[in-house]
Amino acid sequence: MRGTGPAGLRDALGTGFREWRTVAVLLGANWMVAALMVTPALPGVLATFGHAPRASGRPLLSAEVLGGLGALFESGRAPSILGPLLLLVVLQTFLTGGVVWRVCAGGPFHLGAFFGQAGRLVGRNARLSLWLLLLLVTASLVPLGVGLLLRALGLTGMGEALIFGSPFRGWGLLLLAVTGLALAVWRLSLEVGRVLLFQDDLRSTRRAAWRAVRLVLRSPLPLVLYALLGLGATLAVLLAARGRALLPEGSAALGLLALLVGQAVLWIRLAFQVAGTRFAAALVERVDGRRSTDDSGGPSPG
Known about the structure:
Number of helices: 11
Helix content: over 70%
Number of strands: 0
Shape: globular
Strand content: under 5%
């Protein structure tokens, strides 16, 4: 049985990057949403700037092109935002069941089985997310209360001092850590609840949500490690995005390279998402194994 200590964290990361087929499905969903988002704006952009701005001596990211996008979008040719984002939420909720199946069941990847499990669990996963919105609201009150307490004690500022100051020193670092842990409680509870719905085939999403929250709050070390996993995901994405921003303009090859690096950023984020689900599954497996040992009266001798 996989653990939820540092070794379990390494196993979760390994699973996230080994499950490249699962990540590819998630990436394909993001591509579809991105295409729906930008397609309405393409006719206006092409009509205004042509299909090859470089051919007329204008770099793709030139001030001339970027400056003209504002007036173009104000004329009603802006990319579609709300509809595709709602579709992304729906797709993420739908695909969650398939991701949980992959990290729990293992074995060969079958696209039909992936979508079958996704469809079987989509309703329950959607209801679970709604139940745990209550936890998200409650968790968000914790860093808010800590921030107000620090302000009342004169240890931190508010307003511009809090927004534009450095959060990585003094009491600001404490507030940042509390915020990260509060978000980790909510996110890990959501992941654990999804695993419970799959492994125990629970029909009551309220019961699954309550069990998930109790399990997470009783597991402080796995919670901290999960928060570190989220921190690692954030840093990895920021580093990859920084590399993308440093790429120079100048040729079609460089433009293609920039596109590939941008997709690598998204791939890294999705791989960490799968790793987080694997870590939650290991936590549930550990608790189930402990319960089985207790029910049998302890480990057998020899």
